[in-house]
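Researcher: I'm preparing a figure for a lab meeting and need a structural model of a single chain. I don't have an experimental structure, so a prediction will have to do for now. The sequence is pasted below. Please return the structure as tokens so I can convert it later.
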Amino acid sequence: MRFNSMVKFAALAGFAAALSIAPVRAAAQGDTVLRPADTQKLLADKVYYKGQSAPTQLRNSGGVKFADGSYLLATLVDNSGYSSDVQAKYQAYFITEVPLKIGGQDLSAGIYGIGFVADNKFIVTDVGAHDLLTISSSTDDAMKRPTPLQVTTDPAGGYRLYCGRRYVQFTK
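Model: Understood. Here is the structure written out token by token.
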């Protein structure tokens, strides 16, 4: 009898745990993580930032198509034509059609420059290269095959934007 009680308790505990994470999983149901091939028709060959146009690296792009049809897109850019201070913080073009939480901070829908910078920081700038937010980034040492830029799901819910092994977590 004691064994049956333990089994029932374990089953109930598992069910309760599943209910506690259900909203996180439900929020991502219907969302699609986009790979470079998926973004080819959505992103431009060149983008405007800080008074210049820069070629995009569409082979190094990714994003999310949310269940409601809105997008988040990111692509690395060739920033060689920019000054070294701009190059340091502008590594990718970032477009979001919906407000996001990145590392716990709010970011409005819009078009931005982003970069993973020194001291494990992630910076978001407007298209004029003005700093909007800076958050801490994390490193995923367990990642087997890092790529220059990719978006993945986050095991804790939401998504991760990676540059190599460095990443930030975001949610809609």
